[in-house]
Amino acid sequence: MDDTRRYACQSAVTDPGDHRPALQGLSSAGAAGLRELVPGLVIHAGMGGLYGVNLSGRTGEATLRTLHGMLDRLLELSPEPLGTPRPPERRLVGNCRASTVLACGLLREAGIPARARCGFSGYFDSPIFGDHWVVEYRSDDEPGWRLMDAELDDLLMTDNDIGFDPNDVPRDRFVLSGEAWLGIRRGTHEPARFGLDPSVTGADYVRSQLMRDIAALNMEEVGPWDVWGLGEVERALDAADLELLDEVAHATVRASAGDRASERLWVDHPDLRPPTTFLSDPD
After folding, report:
1. In this structure, are residues 185 and 246 in contact, taking their beta carbons and an 8 Å threshold?
2. How far apart are CA 36 and CA 156, in angstroms?
3. Domain count, the chain
4. Residues of the chain with pLDDT > 90: what percent?
5. Cα Rg, the chain, nearest whole Å
């Protein structure tokens, strides 16, 4: 299977399983139409105030890792068709990773190659490039991989003064974790400019995001804050570790141009792979 078509298949995380019938009939919307469905199904756990809804007591929904688990919860909240935008109180409480996983599942189910990318956004109202997940997908309209932000709706875009097309996020507005890592290593990027929020930044956070990105490229979409191996903050890195992280960073950046080095690294370095428990929902 070539690199492109591989990403048109579901992963263990994005497979809807017995909820596949709930996705029937959605594929005709095309990539842009499928993306537009997602903000009507997911609300960020930290944005209840923006949407005028109280999400207290529901933040546990954001720990769901699999699309099947997310669909379980969505259909529990309401049996209405997934193609119908829901009021905020009947949306899944999640985050950018949940929106990305849902979008990847919808796109893959429609036969559209899609994969999650983990990096840092420069378009929200924040003094830093904040932890963010987006979708990288292939379109029949243009060659190559494009970035899509499945979290954005009109309200969120207006609130953050975002003017670009969310189906084609400019590459200079989303910094891949590999780009951030290499910039820090070269001394061209300030480590404190990248992180979860202004209080949690730095090279250690970037490398944990880099590990999540190579996992996503290999269709193992871990949880948004899962950390293992070379991404563990308490791990002291030696020269060999840094060399491997540099290789990973280069490979993940080149993946956007069609390079498959990230797959080879995945095979050659089993220690890059996350625990299998990171690919299932919590008990």
Report:
1. yes
2. 13
3. 1
4. 93
5. 18
